UniProtKB/TrEMBL annotation:
Protein source organism: Flexivirga oryzae
Protein name as catalogued: Branched-chain amino acid transport system ATP-binding protein
Keyword tags: ATP-binding, Nucleotide-binding, Transport
Gene3D superfamilies, A to Z: P-loop containing nucleotide triphosphate hydrolases (3.40.50.300)
Family annotation (PANTHER family): ABC TRANSPORTER ATP-BINDING PROTEIN, CONSERVED COMPONENT OF ABC TRANSPORTER FOR NATURAL AMINO ACIDS-RELATED
Family annotation (PROSITE patterns): ABC_TRANSPORTER_2 (PS50893)
């Protein structure tokens, strides 16, 4: 079932186009990867979907509702969550406290960002989420002391704690070691198994990550969607090889 779709979505900054006539549909239970060189428009696409940027033209529909004019907070409350290339969390709080704050936000308790308001009993959902994201042995650690791989997985877990229907992952393995990349790919496979209706959209430069996870790939260039197809279709397309993937 199509959950999120864009129609001619465009974004310009001071008249300079960063996203041009982007039309795409994203289904529940599907992993879609956005690929393309730096400056292709992937991050702008993400930011416009999440509501951080207002589309200059076109429209966005989520679950049958026109959300083009909704701000980022309203989209998040409706079930659209995202992560960033540089992991974001409350560095001075523990892993568990970060997860609980995100869980509260997902419950609509946006006005309780302090330790004294954290629930005394940890919901079982948080323990399950920590286990799935391989953070169950790190709940007492201060977030700012975590290595890169764990910080990125914490940000992923914080987004999942809000129980999203659409999850936008901007470079979920950026800066990770090869070992951490393998772990994170396994985590994301487990996440999709655990939440089979989740609509997952990610960007990645590591094509091993893309081909391990994606059911569908959008190739972007100069702010436009150049190709839209299965991994096999995109990998075998001459345009993909000449503009991004290379001959091999």
């Amino acid at each position: 079932m199509t959950l999120l779709e864009t129609h001619g979505m465009s974004k310009a900054y001071n008249g300079v186009p960063a996203l041009v006539d982007a039309t795409a549909a994203f289904d529940s239970g599907q992993v879609t990867a956005l690929i393309g060189p730096n400056g292709a428009g992937k991050t702008t696409f993400f930011g416009t979907l999440a509501g951080e940027h207002r589309a200059t033209a076109g429209s966005i529909e989520f679950d049958g509702h026109d959300i083009t004019k909704w701000d980022a907070d309203r989209r998040a409350r409706a079930g659209i969550a995202r992560t960033f290339q540089v992991a974001r969390q409350f560095s001075s709080l523990s892993v568990l406290e970060n997860l609980l704050l995100s869980y509260q936000a997902g419950q609509g308790q946006w006005w309780r960002p302090w330790r004294t308001f954290l629930p005394r009993t940890v919901p079982s959902y948080i323990h399950e989420l920590a286990e799935v994201t391989r953070l169950d042995n790190l709940l007492g650690r201060t977030a700012g002391t975590l290595p890169q791989g764990d910080r990125k997985r914490l940000e992923l877990a914080m987004s999942l704690a809000q129980d999203p229907r659409v999850l936008l992952l901007d470079e979920p393995t950026a800066g990770m070691t090869d070992e951490d990349c393998v772990v994170t790919v396994d985590v994301l496979k487990d996440v999709m198994t655990r939440s089979p209706d989740l609509c997952l959209i990610l960007t990645a430069h590591d094509m091993s990550v893309v081909f391990a996870l994606a059911h569908r790939i959008l190739l972007m260039g100069q702010g436009q969607i150049l190709l839209d197809g299965t991994p096999e279709e995109v990998a075998g397309h001459e345009l993909a090889r000449t503009t991004y993937l290379g001959a091999s």
